[in-house]
Please model this.
Amino acid sequence: MTSPQELVSMIVSKAVKMAEMMNIPIIGLVENMSFFKCPDCGKEHKIFGDSHIDEIAEKHNLKVLAKLPVNPKISAACDNGMIELFDGDWLEPVAKVLEKSIEEDNK
Ligand SMILES: [Zn+2]
Model:
């Protein structure tokens, strides 16, 4: 029996290996649907079980840049082309890494 998280680990590992093979630089991993912030009790529930993203990142010398919650507002914002206006700050670390690499390219 394979858990959803084991399946995800396998897919991520494959994607990382493929990128390495094709010399595509990976800035880091972003985990989507990492947890669900419960409106009832305010806790973060890991509905898909414990993730292995940290282990995978470590194995490939990558950073985990962000863990995104399950949030219907995010998909709605994407569908409406309004994701730029979404006020979540989960992707802040990703934006910082990208800004830094752009700065370094312009040196
Ligand atoms: Zn709850």
Q: What stands out?
A: The radius of gyration is 16 Å. The chain is about 45% helix and 15% strand.
